[in-house]
Structures are given as structure tokens and as C-alpha cells.
Amino acid sequence: MLCSPGQREVLAAAAKLDEGIASLAGHAGRSVAIGASQTVAAHLLPGWLLELRRAQLAAGRSPSETALRTANSTEIVAAVRAGELDLGFIESPDVPAGLGCAVVGRDRMVCAVAPDHAWAERDSVSLGEVAAVPLVTREVGSGTRAAFETAVRQLESGSASPAHALTPALVLATEAAVRSAVAEGVAPAVLSELTVRDDVRLGRIVALPFAPDPLERPFTAVWRGSARDLAGPRRELVALASHRR
After folding, report:
1. 228 vs 126, 221, 224, CA distance in Å?
2. C or N terminus of the chain, fewer CB within 10 Å?
3. Smallest Cα–Cα separation from 225: which of 101, 63, 142?
4. Paired residues of 99 in beta bridges
5. CA distance 232 to 187
6. Alpha carbon distance 134, 167 (integer Å)
7. 58/68 Cα distance (integer angstroms)
8. pTM of the full predicted structure?
9. What is d(CA 136, CA 242) in angstroms, rounded to the nearest whole number?
10. Radius of gyration of the chain from Cα atoms?
11. 174-181, long-range: CB within 8 Å, 24+ apart, which pairs?
């Protein structure tokens, strides 16, 4: 997909300002270390990086070299704070203090169940009923898990009949493992609709939206410093990701 005129204008404006900043800072040509939590890394970041490369080539510039890392949201934030990453993309609803942040998109969550699950024939599920059953979940620190648990806490704070304590049926380290456990009938899971599309298409999983209100979470770019410290290919990448939102 080629960049639109608006995208090229965004990149051109950022490049004119940032070329001088990068040269003064001695970072021109340096590989950019980028980290992303699993949903962004698997389903969004490859497309963003491809668009960035095309835009840079179209502007007559050499494509930026990137070093990529995938981890959960908590680990990405820690790596950015430690200077191990120049830019991170997280899926947690909590904004980390002391870092520059920009929301670049939003993600809708679904309840994933096996085709023979009792809920599989339904059109939707409520947050309260899903919170009341043991689920297959990611580990603590995962943005996917944090988004669901934050929503449940908010629901319970205004409810006279809170859901049962969130006790997982099984905790796994990757979303691929969670999807496999769901498909095998271990228990439902709350996942990004981006991650279950292929399984739904193949009939391995049924994805149920939340009703009456959808369950959403932000995708957030994080970096050290403030907005003025976001420069060079990092700013170009954040601009492209935000433009596609």
C-alpha cells in the first residue's frame, strides 16, 4: 500500500526538522531499537515498518535500520526506561509515568471460545459473565490481560453484585498458546480481535463481541523524554501509525 499525499507530507515535515537534530546528536544512520508487545508486533508493526521504508525511499533517503524486540507491555516499558529500546509500542490501558506517550490506535477485544462451547451459538457476551468464569490468560504484565482486568475492576466499582475473583484456568506466555488452549476447549479467553481472525476463519475459534458496551484498549507508543525528544525515524514511525488510526 503506497503512502497517501498526507502521509508523505507528514514524513517530509518531520524529516526536515529531524535531520539536523539527528546530525547534531550524532545518531544519524544508527539502527533504531524498537520493541512491541505481541499483538502490535505480529499484526501491525510489520505494515508500519513497510510503509516507513517505502516513504523514505520515495523521499530519496536510505531506509532506516531497525532492531526489533517482542515482549509483553510491562517488559517493553522497562526496556524503554533502561535505554535498551528507542521506541516501544504497548497494549496496556495504563499510561507509564515519566515517559513520552502517544496513542496510535485502538483495539477491540473479544471473548474467544471453542466451537463446542456453550456460548458459541450466542451473538455476544457481557463483561460480567466472562469475568465470573476461569479463563485462559497471558502472564501478569501482558497488555491483553491488563486491559481485561482493568475493565472488570471498573465494572465492579459501580456494581452491587461484583463478579467472582479473577482466577485463571491456565496462564500461558504467548497469544498463540492461548488460542490453541481455547481451540482445544480448555476455557474461554479474552483476546484482541486481530489475533483470532485466522482461527475464526478456519473454524477453530468462535469470537464473541462484548455487549452492551464493546471492550477496547489503546495502542500506545512510548519513549524517553517528552514530545520534543521524539525525532528522526522514531517520529516518522509514530506519525505513520497514528495516521493509519
Report:
1. 42, 14, 10
2. N
3. 101
4. 224
5. 45
6. 6
7. 23
8. 0.84
9. 31
10. 20
11. 174/38, 174/138, 175/38, 175/39, 175/42, 175/138, 175/144, 178/136, 178/137, 178/138, 179/112, 179/204, 179/205, 181/136
Answer yes or no: are the C-beta atoms of 175 and 137 closer than 8 Å.
no
What is the rounded CA–CA span in Å between residue 130 and residue 159?
15
36-78: per-residue pLDDT in tens?
A: 999 999 999 999 999 999 999 999 999 999 999 999 999 999 9
- Residue 245 corresponds to which cell in the numbers above? 488510526
Query: Do 72 and 38 form a contact (C-beta atoms < 8 A)?
Result: yes
3-state class of 73 per DSSP?
helix
Cell digits of residue 53: 521504508
Q: What gap in Å lies between CA 159 and CA 153, rounded to an integer?
A: 10
Give the Cβ contact number of residue 93 at 10 Å.
18
Contacts of 45 (CB under 8 A, 6+ apart): 34, 36, 68, 89
What is the three-class DSSP state of 6?
helix
Q: What is the DSSP letter of 166?
A: -
Residue with cell 482486568: 149
